[in-house]
Amino acid sequence: MMWSSKKLWFYVLGCWSGYCPVGAAAADDGLAKNFVCQHPPYQPLLVSASPLVIYIKNFLTPQERLHLYTASQGKFSQSAVAAAGTAEDGDGGGSLASRHGARTSQSAYIPRDAVVHCIEERAAVFQGYDVAREQLEPLQLVKYGPGEQYRFHTDWLARDSVKAAHATADNGGNRLSSFFVYVHLHENNTDTTTGGGTNFPLLHAPRDERWCAEQLVNCDEPWDNGVTFRPVPGHAVFWRNLHPEDGHGDYRTLHAGLPVSTGEKIGMNIWTRQGPLNEEARGPEYYPDV
Fold first, then answer.
1. Which residue range or ranges hold the Fe2OG dioxygenase domain (predicted)?
2. β pairing state of 236-240 and 175-186
């Protein structure tokens, strides 16, 4: 099968060649059939005004988390990292992507059914009425086992890298914002794990004792390590990737998915572009028979 360099890039960046070739059908928990979208009373907590970082308690319902977990089973594969010499460099050489020491997780994409549609709507409205659901990339689930991590990186597409050509207006522009949502934790039949926090080394850690009492952040780290959000199922971290003044990437949003020590963590990336994605990039809507 011959793909254009544009389609190859979409596969590396978000498995978007028409829509991600996900293989076998996912397990069905029945939630998507006759689903009625009702947004939970989530609680946003301001972490930083500049860059804008907000912690969101209870962004997902338990039923939504179960649906995402069930729908992703059998779909995970090694997370892709764009590498030098791949087709997006323009020389047509090299491999599409390879296992990379910087990112050792597994990724999965699930069909945009009624539940996913509801989560997308929530993520868009959270950012204000001027953000459309069509600006969201396909939701990406990521799974981390013991020792797996995603080293320090930013989500925005650097203008001086091979990714810059894929941040054009036709492709929705750059990544305006990110959510990282904690979907599922598991260790010894409990809804917990050890390690696997999300660290922002250039942010000031919040000082209010309630962040520690509710175990939302890792308060055992030195203050000069920035802030590490603990993985709590259903909670999320939201941040703006670009400076509002000029649209340039904000280096202060540097972050890492720290290694999981024991257990398993499944999270979800929700990336919003500056403008609408084209139909090829977004992929189709999907509704099971009712």
1. 135-274
2. antiparallel
